[in-house]
Input
Amino acid sequence: MEEQSRELSCFQADIEGFSGPFDLLCYLVENRQLEAARISVGQVVRIYGAYLANTGKVSVAVVSEFLSMASSLVLNKIRSLFPQRETGEEDSDYSIIDEGANVEEKLSRYRPYRLAAAFLAKCRERQDKMFARESEEIEEPSWGLGDLFGLCNIWWDLLEAHRGTAGKGKISLFDDGMYMEGVPAPLPDEAQIEKKISEIMAGLQGKQWVSLSALLGENRNAAAFVVTLLSLLEMSRMGYIRLYQEVLFQDVLICPL
Amino acid sequence: MSSSARFDTLSETAAKIEAILFTASSPVSVKELAEALAIPQSAAANEIRNLFSYLEKTGSGIELQELAGGWKLMTSPLASDAVARFRDTAQRQKIRLSKAAVETLAVIAYNQPVTRSEIEDIRGVRCERVIETLLSHGIVRIAGRKKGTGSPLLYRTTDLFLETFGLAAISDLPTLEELQELGHESYQPTRTPGTVMAEAAASRERDGE
Output
């Protein structure tokens, strides 16, 4: 048993091309294959820290690599949590580096790449005039913070409107009459079912059985049916009744126990 | 048979290739076409050449273009205005790249895999934001880390880069020396049937025909 736990604590995942799972995780985040915002950096660091502590042989190089990767993960997470920059903003990012270098030498080295960029721009110009069948892949929906803020505003406005009109006889979005046929009334589910169970229990008193159609009576809309069915299933689960249906699609008989 | 008569009709196989490419939204490789048609790759490459010439000679509004290692049916540049007006979303689908982004792409394309500091060393300006933009568009990708101090990230171009710039492969790019000698104006980037023929011959050799 001890040997097994020792084996588990020494478990090591070797991934080709990466120095370890943490390196792979950083690669996936940096390469946009994993969404940084969904990663709990604290948890990852705790697990990896525990793993390093368990190995018992942590060199300075390993610790520095760990810190470098952890900070890169934190940076990526911070970036993913902030709104994305607008495209084209990078044009203003012309902070010149290495001012001391020989400008002429720099320019002569860079000149061929300007030609290459002009060549690419020409290729692009031609390609922009050509169209192809659109990909049918459906992109995952995404919601920006702006949308969420807008949605919150609409929600608060509606809530305020409801509070303002409640009990004053005005029509609001929350009036019962506004609900569509077949949609259950906006009572909590539990309350509706509890109420229905009491009604059914009262209806079953002194009887050997009652049919579902009799129970539903004239009130045969979808909302009433769903609530009745859920109540019957709950009553059956609690051992109050037994449900019978002798032939498929025929009436259901409810017998009290 | 005169050359004009030759392109009046397509062979059955070329017509099938046209049909396959018509349904595809991403470039289809010669290998995939050969497998779908159950023919050798060399024969598929030959039929592509026939289809290429047929579309060219008949003045079709459709062109066959080699992109990112595969073939794709594209509308002709001559029809671009009409198509853009018909499908107003078409223009919006195109990735918008700034001049700085294209210059950075050129440095990455010619030096890949390359680190950010190497790009900045060539360009002489900071490139972090530009690289971020290129990464977010999927035109460049991270291709691991360079061994050495700080293990900096290495960047490479993607297939989307080839598709965006109408290139079949990175080797389609002229060398920096060629560009300096000829100038970018005189360099022809697109594939011709001649290139396809040369590839067909190479495929035939590989298939042992």
In short: The first helix of chain B runs from residue 3 to 6. Chain B touches chain A through 71 residues (CB under 8 Å). The beta strands of chain B are 62-67, 70-75, 114-115, 140-145, 153-157.
